[in-house]
User: Fold these one by one.
Assistant:
Number 1:
Amino acid sequence: MKGTYLGEFEELVLLTVAVLNGEAYGISIAKVIEEEAERAVTISTIHNVLYRLEKKGFVKSRLGGATAERGGRNKRLFSITATGHAALNQSNKLRNRLWNLMPELKF
Amino acid sequence: MENKKPPALADAFLEWYCSKEFIDEVQGDLHEWFHHRAKKQGYRKARLMYFLDVIRFLRSYRVKSIDELSQNSNHIAMLRNYLTTSWRSLIKNKAFSIINILGLAVGMSSFLLISLYVTHERSYDQFHENGENVYRLKLSRYNDGVLSTEWAAGCSAIGSALNDNFPEVIDYVRMTPSNAVVSYGDKVFREENAYYASESFFEHFTIPLIEGVDSSVLVKPYTAAISETTAKKYFGDDQAVGKTLRHNGTRDFEITGVFKNVPTNSHFNMDMLFSFETFVDIVGDDVYTAWDWDGFYNYIVLADGTDPKTFESKIPDFIQKERGEQLTEQNHMIEFELQPVTDIHLTSDYMMEFKPNGDGEATNFLFIISIFIIAIAWVNYINLATAKSMERSREVGIRKVMGSMRSQLIRQFLVESFLLNILALTLSVAVVFLMLPYFNQLSGRELAVDFTSLEFWLTLGVLLLTGAMFSGLYPAFVLSGFKPVAILKGKFINSSKGNYLRKGLVVFQFLASLVLMVGTLTVFQQLRYMRNEDLGVKIDQTLVIQGPNVTDSLYDDRLNTFKQTLTSFAEIRSITASTAVPGTQPPWNAGGIRLLEQDQTEAQQYRVVGADHDFVDAYDLDLLAGRKFDKERVNDQSTVLMNESATELMGFESIDEALNRDIFFWGDTFRIVGVLKDYHQESLKKSFEPLIFRLIPNASNFYSVSISTNDIPYLIEKIEDEWKAEFPGNPFDFFFLDDHYDQQYKSEIQFGKVFGLFAGLAIFIACLGLFGLASYMTAQRTKEIGVRKILGASLASVLSLLSKDFVRLILVSILFAIPVSWFVMDDWLSGFANQINLSWWIFTAPSILILVIALGTVALQTIRAGISNPVDSLRHE
């Protein structure tokens, strides 16, 4: 089903949202991904992915947590929903299943 | 000190576009990210990246909606207001709006039509993928230092010689026409567009093969490639490749390829190509290296980045090295010029062009006319808008008092002109669409509006923008500049500057119209002159049959029988066989001809007509001295006739001097037995050419039949029956000589018609403007007229009062138009060898006409004012 399909980057962002546990917003997510996955990210991409995930119902958001560094602007804080959690779970299970099916390969 | 803040400009841009809904998180995150990045990479880099990020965030869902925009800014709301008021003012002044829109629409339609035409003319041969590197070699031949012939199809050797000796020439293509009657089974057709072409033709010209392979289609002798349509003509839906076509009843060609029809916007047009090797097989391989044998199209392909001019300048030295000795011996000179293949259509008009090319000058001329017409239409708008300014001044005054800024007023008037232009443009696109078939008929082209092309929309856009700005800017500035206090007090003085401008513009409009009218008249006079002038040769009531290509050893007898049978018909005056007919340049050009005793350095080139004994009588040619060909004399095949120009070229002082002298012609000796008066072998555009007439009783190119009957179809049927009996296997193709001759004027006739059409339109637009102006001026003076009438003025005096100003303007434009049009048309006429004189009435007739039309237009308005009851105009204050 197209609506619930998780892209690779989407999954990464969704996982990060879950990890940050309520403290997830554009910058915190970007920092985590930069450090953990060691890949360059652009803020606008992360925003776009977040909106997409919100549309799919995997995350929900609220405004809050303005700081001086942000010029007094609010953050949009994201947290994972039950559906989002289920989607992560499902994709994880699928991976494990496939992983187990893999024959022993020597490299 | 380093700037530790995100760039303000980028921030402002973000705030401008970003919707309220998103601005918090986006800007906040961006700022935070900016500081994060600055720590890692420094502020300079961070600031730069900030710009990029702001642009990256520009997504449609984040952009403010129209509603959100108009809440924050006045502009959108004002634009709405401008549109509303503009629309109201258009509706309020219906007559003015209609005149404006109509004038603009006519002008825009003309402009669009002409630019379609011009674009088409400039699109020729653009479809060749490597077109910028392909050049045709034009050959000029000089005898005794004087230019004698210029060839589109020059000598055979040049293409391959350049290819062999210059590394920058990658390849060459050689072509020569093949006059052919082609048959497949019982299907027989005359192929006018058949050529021998060397094997790399399809490699360098982008004419895709549907069947066959580029590099091998035309390699072997007796192979041919044919066009899609031709394949259909002979084989229907069957496969063409592998089939055999018979050429002139003798040679069989195997079809190895089928190519897509050559686009119409190409300087050549071919239905059938035979391999050049076949031609070599027929005439011998001397042709590879023939320098004195013309009639071969040579195309060379230059390596990428070769400068054609530099390369061209190397050719003379090469020719000198290669051919210098022979050329000096003959006192001859040859010169080659590189014609970019894409330029041929508009610049080339030499011997043996594939088809009549376009006229670059006329095309440019037309383009200028189109700009004139659109300018006239814009001028109308400027004129009417400024003339109306008094009416609008109150509106402007009130607006200013209410606090309008000048810039806002300017914007308002610009919006008005945009609105008007958009309406006119829409109308004109519809007009163009409807008129295109008629215009195609007129121009002889197949133009189409391509609604999908970017270029088309770009043209529209530019037209709209320039139009609206050009015509709207001046009125906008004038109207917005009024002083409110003065206006509202009722003191409104029409500025004299505006008056001058208006008058100047009217003068310009009528000047342009007049020049166009004089132009039209001149073109048609010249045409009439050329078509009515005595040609010195009889071309009416003459049917020309294209001679047979498929012949056998009995041809002479068959021809005689055919001629005898035909002359026995009461409806037929005479029949004559010849190698050329009036209306086209004789295809036989012979160089090296001189008097027997002359040195070969004095030899010249002549056009040669081969004809039978009856030619002179059949064509009613005037014999000035000597005699015609004589059937009784057996040796007459070694005699020639000449025209006056030929005797002059040969250096005779008088005609009689030429009689009984011997000339040297390609190794044989011929005696001049008669001199013919110069006649117009070709159109009057050209001067007389030196012609030599050889007696060739069995000439097989054309049979000219002079007829006198009312029942032409019946006679043609009778002739066709005879034809089929004598020349089986040959299609019966004929044309009427006067039509054929008239074909030479086709482009002039088209030019004249197009010119006339646009001249008419220009006058129409100019008069629309005048009409509007007059009606306005009259309305302004209603009270004055009322007072004058009460004091006893007559209708006539009122009329003269109102028309005086306009008449003066038109007289001024006439004064300017006469020298301008004289200059332009004199230049145009200089392209004709036989031209009319620009007599005085060519200028006066249009001047009077335009005066009458203009006066009529003005009178339409003024008479109404003149006969109105003064009480009505004075009653209401």
Note: Chain B touches chain A at residues 23-33, 35-36, 53, 56-57, 59, 61 (CB under 8 Å).
Number 2:
Amino acid sequence: MKQAVALFVSDEYEVLTSHLKQYLAPQYELSIYKHPFKVDEGSETYVGAIALGEQAVQVATSHPYLTKKALVTYARTPAAKSPSSLAIEELSDDEYVQQLLRIFTFLPTFKHILIFEEERGSLRSCALTKTLKAQGYIVSTLALHGKLTRRDILHIASHDLCIVMCNNVHADEAQRISILCQQHGTCLYYTKKEAIHFGASLTFDLDRKVLAKKIVHSLTALLENRSDLQKKEKAPYRLTIDREALKRQGTLPKMIDDLTLLVQDTVLITPDTREKVNAYLRMQKIPLE
Amino acid sequence: MIAIPLLTVSLLLILFSTFFYLKRAAKKAHLFHQPRQHMFSPDTIEERRIGIITPLLHEATYALTQGIQSHVNKSRSYRYVFSHYHGDNDRITLCEEASKALRENDIIVSYGLAATNIAFEAIDQTQSNVLLLSAGLRHHHIPLIKQKNPGKILYSVVSERNYFEQVKRLTSLKPSLQHVLIMYRQSNEWLVEEIKNLTKTFHAHAVEATPYLITHSGHIDNQIDALNKTFDTIFLMPRSLEAKGLQELITYCNQTGITLCTNEHDPVVLGAAIGFGGEAHLIGSHLGHIVRQVLEAKEYPKHDHIIDLIDTYRIAINQAALSRQGVNLNKDALFLLNQGFVRGQTL
């Protein structure tokens, strides 16, 4: 018989919820609670719970019964209050910027950076501008309107890299910016991975599929009382590179070219003892051929 | 005079409406339309058994199984059950296992020349009609198998090792590569030719290469030192060393800062820095397609069918071993390899 699990989910996590449903279904009986997260009387049947989003996390961590159970939370700033819970956190603004800077090491010729902001003066954008300036880059910031002005076009043309910080990707807008970047040899970076389909050459965004797997894995580990569990983990992010777009935008240095050739087929491993023992056992004899 | 056509029209109307009413009623009672027959339900799933024959349970066996699974698990009307048969490296036991596989399965898959030969022998002995799919064969194996099994239909996936790609990737990971020691165990007569080609490929990349035939599975460090040459990388050919000898070699490489690059993933788990492997996964996914064609679409082969592939590898990198074995990938490169995804890239 499948174990019952409650899922508290805020509205903005639709994609993540659908991945979670897919991964939880074979093992668990899932009950979904949306805003206002009213838990019915049968809550004591749940062996564990997952909460996605600030509000959902608040409800789950203050529930008298669920706090005693295996609880996995995910939000931008989750509070892991109950002793049994495991919190998966999004990268903070500073951490995101630090990761982003790693990408710039592969693009050493870049000096002039243009940032398009959807939300003027967002914390992430401020952190990025500040860090980039401290690193010696020349940074300009513009607001992202629905329509690109002559001034925007001139700015794109005079910069090496264009960073678009947005919450949603608008296809027309992204395509227009990518064409302009292509025409003027400016590399286009988006914070949302969907933009890769509309001409962005680099994106760095949350990997929802891997995150869903991580949540399910953590829940199972909590239920099995595994000793190797950490109380807090970072959400998985993925850097997506479109080599063809990079070439079109006139920036494919040899270093990134060589590495991107390896990225798709390479897996970095840090094997644990069990894996080592299994590999040793498999290699105790050499096959006939 | 007017009443007669009016009466005729109203009569016709009544007749038509009655006809349509009856037709609708009959439709509801499934008289005109057949009920749907292809409704999917778990009760209608049939089970099909696939037997995989290999000399040993090895890394490639699991990769092959995963590859087949990735394709056959898409089936909605059949559930596929996998069984592994191996002879613990003994040909007689393997032949018995192959006969057992023929009795217990709907289709069997052999991996490698030895397993294919033995599976054909088992088919002769048991007079079985079960279809044999062979994989892990090279081009030059095909005429030999045909010669030994005249009149038999050969359904196989033939693949060649892609050393050019391996050398190219290795030089990207270690640009300082200068002198490579190619270590191998002569498991078959064709390997000598492969080693010659590999040496040429290294030379083409301006890297000096020295082939070395492993004479003894122990004292690896002494064997290498006795060569009296300096190397920065050891390229270990597939199935050359067993676990104990490999561990000696890993320890030697860690102490001397030599990069150990292997042709399998298991040595990387044990401590080698870089490994090319997982090629059996792609072969498996091709086999999975054939399995579904044969068992679901009932397309039994009437002639030989050979699918030609070039091995495609996954590169496994042991992060902890990199610095010990002289590969200087900086943190940024590791970040890119760990979290990067290149869109639309295929080998």
Note: The mean pLDDT of chain B is 86.
